[in-house]
Amino acid sequence: MAHAYTPGLKVLHESKVKKDRILPLKGDVLVEKDALVTPDDIVARTHLPGNVQMLNVANTLNIDPTDVKDVMLKQLGDELKKGDMMAETKGLFGLFKSNVVAPIDCTLESISPITGQVVLRDAPIPVEIDAYMRGTVSEVIPEEGVVIEADAVFIQGIFGIGGESRGELAILTDSRDDELTVDMIKPEHAGKVLVGGSFLSLAAYKKALGMKVAGVVVGGFNYFDLEEILGYTLGVAITGSEDLVTSLVLTEGYGEIRMGSRTFDLLKRHSGKFTSINGATQIRAGVIRPEIVIPLAPEDLKGDAHVAKVNEGIQAGSLVRVIRAPYFGRIGTVVSLPAPLHKMESETMVRVAEIKIDDQIMTIPRANLEMVETD
């Protein structure tokens, strides 16, 4: 059977979701294998080395660099509080002494007899990794972190901003065609993940930020409004490190695009449940998609959890999304994958697929398609 290899998005009603929760450098793992965890549980902890500050003691005391060690009142490895005296000259007949105090809370790391400088290091910076989602610790990686596993609804978006967030899922629009407007966002939505339909305006997103909403999931957003939010023009789409209270996940793309029916219906079905989302996006080698994860209770499980398989690509019957104009965001079903090259309006010869969208058969380049993985 003919098929075409293509990236795809997942919209799964029940899936085995695994999340690596790894420290940036070796530290302590705080949970054991098979432990049940909630999103806010700290599963691993470490400390990053503090920043370094140089202080030229020789210049400050007007002495030779080789004499610095003789006037130091503290030893290597000693901890100092801001204002603590760390070096003092003997003065003349015990008078007219000069001294140097610690400018910060720090540790004395080194003393150079060549430059006369001492190296002071800030206190270590604590780093804690939480579980992100409710689940079970399926694997412990000593000194590094854990793998959390859960049976969950798993939905991937096209683009997002903001990192990890979580909260109760609240559906604010009646239809996937409706815009999530400013007046729909209220103080009681603080800490929740809001779901709209086709669009979210810049004004509405700013109100969500002001109300400290945990996250927003909608079909589309204005690309040019991202610069005002981020403070810079988004080039290559690598996001997730933004310091934003409200993460944003777009399921369809830029502009006013109604949310896919499968996605909207699935989110609506789980309204009120605790949800974890991540707006991190990377559109390049090692693609990262924004995601929505809704862990399921045992009574919600149907026993048909999706198991990820090697992507066999688009085939006849595959559900696909068009990712370029003029049908950007439209979803349809593959009718056939003609083998011969097809001549486009641009005179280029490309491989195409025949797609059924809203009872119409359209011929679209395969490179303009993305498979939607459902269950």
Task: Explain the overall architecture.
There is one protein chain. With 375 residues, this protein is mainly beta. It has three domains: 3-45 and 133-300, 3-Layer(bba) Sandwich (Glucose Oxidase, domain 1); 52-122, OB fold (Dihydrolipoamide Acetyltransferase, E2P) (Beta Barrel); 314-374, SH3 type barrels, CATH 2.30.30. It has helices spanning 57-61, 68-71, 202-210, 226-230, 261-269; strands at 3-4, 8-22, 28-29, 36-37, 42-48, 52-56, 79-80, 85-88, 99-101, 106-111, 117-122, 125-130, 135-141, 145-156, 159-161, 164-171, 179-180, 193-195, 199-200, 215-221, 238-239, 247-254, 274-278, 281-282, 291-295, 314-315, 319-322, 331-336, 342-343, 349-350, 352-357, 360-365, 369-374. It has an 18-stranded mixed β-sheet that branches. The chain has a four-stranded antiparallel β-sheet with strand order 6-11-10-7. Helix 3 links the parallel strand 19 (199-200) and strand 20. The two termini are 21 Å apart. 34% of the residues are buried.
| End-to-end separation | 21 Å
CATH fold-level topology of the largest domain? Glucose Oxidase, domain 1
What sort of overall outline do the alpha carbons produce when their principal axes are compared? elongated
Number of helices: 5
Q: At the fourth CATH level, what is the homologous superfamily of the largest domain?
A: Phosphohistidine domain
Give the low-pLDDT segments. 1-6, 307-311
Beta-strand segment tally: 33
Rounded to an integer in angstroms, the radius of gyration calculated over CA atoms is: 28 Å
The major β-sheet equals: 18 strands, mixed
Share in β-strands = 35-45%
CATH architecture of the largest domain: 3-Layer(bba) Sandwich
Percent helix:
under 10%
How confident is the prediction overall: mean pLDDT? 88
CATH class of the largest domain: Alpha Beta
Classification by helices and strands = mainly beta
The overall number of domains is 3
